[in-house]
Input
Amino acid sequence: MSPEKISLISSPITKFIDSLRKRLIDQSGRNSLINFRFRAGSRTSLEIATKNLDQIWKRIYKDEASLGLLPISQEVALKDNKKEGESGKREKHIEVVRFTDEEIESKADDDEIVVNLEKQKFNSNCNNVRRKADSLIKETGINNLYLALGYLKWFESQDSEKARKSPLVLLPISITCSTKAGNSEKNTKSSILMRS
Output
């Protein structure tokens, strides 16, 4: 090593820059890349129900395909619509049906990902996440929307009882929402695509 390089490594400027770098990177539990806390009522994250992460990885990363997002439950019209209401008109009977675990896993093969949200919250959360990400990109030029595949569960010390979860694989994505007016309700179709 030349004398110039040795003096540069131990120079006060280099030490100052290193101290700034350490302060810039939040290494505390507030950093969601170190300690992600999913909140059930959160409007800024979507929890995926499928356990088939290999299929999602293959479709989004390797095949660069767009995957549709679905809520955990769907409205299904009942077959027996022969009942008439008080007005004498046929009533529309709709039942809300949740996907079974087998159906959730089979949806990944059909290029669809099931999200752990009911339909009403699903539509508003997808739109909220997309709007926040688009807003941040316009304001700062930075994409902060990622699909996390897998989490590492760890403890700060051997005495600690509080588990922390850190995302293992982060894929930069974008969410698109297309809304089409239906009979009297809005149907929103959301999908995710890897952002390069």
User: Anything to note?
Assistant: Strands lie at 67-71, 73-77, 94-98, 112-115, 146-155, 163-181, 186-194. The two ends are 39 Å apart (CA to CA). The chain has a mean pLDDT of 79. DSSP finds five helices and seven strands in the chain.
